[in-house]
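ok so I'm stuck.
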Amino acid sequence: MKPNLRILFPFAILLALGGFAAVADSPLPLIQAHAHNDYQHTRPLLDALAHGFCSVEADIHLVNGQLLVAHDRSQAKPGRTLQSLYLDPLRARVKQNGGRVYPNGPEFTLLIDLKTDWRTIYPVLRSVLTNYSDLLSTFRNDAKHTNAVTAVISGSRTNTLFAGEATRYATLDGLVADLDLNPPATLVPWISASWGSLFRWRGQGEFSAAEAEKLRDIVSRAHGQGRRVRFWGAPDHVEFWRTLRSFDVDLINTDDLAGLEILLRETKTR
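replied:
not stuck anymore, here's the structure
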């Protein structure tokens, strides 16, 4: 029997665009799941989306005028741009899903880690982001216009990065020190910190009362200021993730997409 080409053709188009899974079998979004160094997975962005992640991280270098995604400058390859790996696929998916990354889902976060000095790379990044205003949340006079994706800038940055901009297309990844400075949450919506620089506990054995109180204080202060909390350079296994959840840490940083998805979906169904 010959296949019905009229039926197969639309499905072929969706598969070619990488959008079939998003339309037909989109996973429930996991707002706590953050894909650390997402671009190192087999399918940057797409693997994270297949597991329901709502936040991904892309390191970028400015090379010959292009924003290339890679951990180190020596690993940067032509064609692996911020646009091709992230912004364009996100735009296509948002169009497919009626204005959201996941159908009727929450806002998605694209964490952009600047590996080139911000004075050089940020003007190029801003120019690129302006071309995605249909996709990105924007900010004017510290008022947020929420859209499908919020860009957060990390790495080489300064709290004066957006000086003089009437409209901005990104926010800043904050530091623990920002809890004392208390900048607007529309400027610094979350706090990222190195776990190893603050805590000795590595997810096994007893979590000391003193360190537990320190973690509780960071989370409480951040939430009181309307910010989320993320730790990097942290243990990446189930027991540690469970501890972070018990302390209401908002974003769990992981390289193990499948493992974290299993934990988060398991606890959702209890």
